[in-house]
Amino acid sequence: MVLQDALFDVTVNPVLRLRQICLLAYDLEWTSNLLCTAFDATVVFRDSRMAAGGNLTNTHIRLGDSFLETVCPSDLAWQRSTTQTRLLDRNGDCGYMAIVQVPDVGVASQAMAKQGNAIGMVSGGLIVCPGSPGSGFADIESRNYELGEPLPKKEGTVSGANVQFHPRDFGTLAEIQENWPGQSEFPRNKGAYFPAGNTWQTDVDVRPHGGVTTGFAAVEIAPRDADPKDVCARWQQGLEAGCWIDPAQPTILHLADGQTMRFVKPGSDGRTGVIGVDLWSVAAKRKTFETIDICGVTWRLVEPASGD
Q1: I need a surface site. Which of 3, 98, 235, 239 has the fewest CB within 10 A?
Q2: Domain carrying residue 101
Q3: 109 and 234, same structural domain?
Q4: Same domain for 264 and 155
Q5: Are residues 233 and 171 part of one domain?
Q6: Would 34 be classed as within a structural domain?
Q7: Residue 8, exposed/middle/buried by CB under 10 A (0-12, 13-18, 19+)?
């Protein structure tokens, strides 16, 4: 995608996309059902590995080529007073994490780790599985990710890596993802994307999206204790891959295909982290809403960048 301005001439890598938003909620089933109804979408994955860890359960809802995750602490997590339960105590249901797909997780993870206070990687995982996109998780192998490690790409396998970074550096819990093969094809992507499992691809052709939205247009992040301009610059320097900032709008980061990340000061309600998400509306269909508040996040339907 070539984007030109009087002050710059840059090419954004088409892989560099806002691919997933994660929410944190007290009630997983109620929140997930509400989101499915509002966005005409369905739950495509529940991560049994996360549930087996004892602290969190989750759902993934597919919105076109993107995914909306909701996580909920378990009773054991409340007993242990985990990060998630403390965040719920402070904010109630809220936005939790922004996840951006990158072309090279080894390069991006090292660049992200240097930003802000350089707290660095807070967690990361790598998985490799025999098969192809859509073939499931049989014989999956997983381990911790090592900072700067390239994603292994071997014929006959699918692989994925995720790396998370501290909210203090990026305004919210931040995650970057690389998955192989097929992550660069949009729309109607059916390549590997492991956070949502490896069977969601089977119905993309039949139902590429619901009747409300085709996916994410933007995320709005309110840093807790940092200047929005500084946080925006950290994301740009960490993600690289051609993402750009217009000097006239220093708090907006431009990704591929018209997607943006906006950074704002907290409002009078004191909400921080992910506080808003823009969704592309379905072309040539009447919007079912303009804005709606769900799980502490304001959702806006905006006109599609191009017809679908």
Answers
A1: 3
A2: 11-203
A3: no
A4: no
A5: no
A6: yes
A7: exposed
Among the candidates 185, 203, 221, a domain finishes at 203
The ranges of the chain with pLDDT < 50 are: 1-7, 307
pLDDT at 142: 95
Is 249 within the bounds of a domain?
Answer: yes
pLDDT at 50: 86
What is the per-residue pLDDT across 85-135, written as a single tens digit (0 to 9) for each? 999 999 999 999 999 999 999 999 999 999 999 999 999 999 999 999 999
The 10s digit of each residue's pLDDT in 169-182 is: 999 999 999 999 99
Q: What is the pLDDT of residue 4?
A: 40
The residues near 81 (Cβ < 8 Å, ≥ 6 apart) are none
The number of domains in the chain is 2
Rounded-to-integer distance, Cα 289 and Cα 304, Å: 15
Please name the helix (run of DSSP H) or strand (run of DSSP E) that holds residue 80, with its range, or none. helix 75-80
Of 108, 101, 299, nearest to 217 by C-alpha is 299
Q: Report the pLDDT value the prediction gives residue 10, as an integer from 0 to 100.
A: 73
How many Å apart are CA 203 and CA 184, to the nearest integer?
Answer: 19
Residue 307 lies in a domain: no
Residues 35 and 166 in one domain: yes
Contacts 24+ apart (CB under 8 A), 152-158: 152/126, 152/128, 153/180, 153/181, 154/128, 156/130, 156/131, 157/128, 157/129, 157/130, 157/131, 158/128, 158/129, 158/131, 158/132, 158/133, 158/192, 158/194, 158/198
